[in-house]
Amino acid sequence: xxxxxxxxxxxAIIITGCGESKPLNQQHISRASFVRGKEVFMExxxxxxxxxxxxxxxxxxxxxxxxxxxxxxPEVALIPRDSLLQVIRDGGEAxxxxxxxxxxxxxxxxxxxxxxxxxxxxxxxxxxxxxxxDMHNAExxxx
Length: 143
Description:
- By secondary structure, the chain is an all-alpha fold.
- The chain contains four helices and two strands; from the N terminus they run αβαααβ.
- The protein is globular and about 35 Å long.
């Protein structure tokens, strides 16, 4: 009986993600954070990830696999913020992604990285980079 109880606890811990941050489908982001994140993305990330955040940036042809992520895919919204934070801060080589992706920890502030993650999650939830008018109607955003 005790082993069944312990197994139940272990399964519950695994299912809840051991305390990781919630994926976006369980939280909302602010419009302000999205707008700031979009600015960072367009300045720093679009050359590889594309202006539409679809992984088809102008530099993709110069890269070898693994190619930049397509942030328009719905499964990206399920990636916990902590996981995206690690990739952005530490870069591709340190996280098993494309080594051409730089580590941004010495370039971007914590706020800029957090805003960038908000942009990535919102784009994934909507399946595209939201236009300004979307931000007033989308359920993804809070004020």
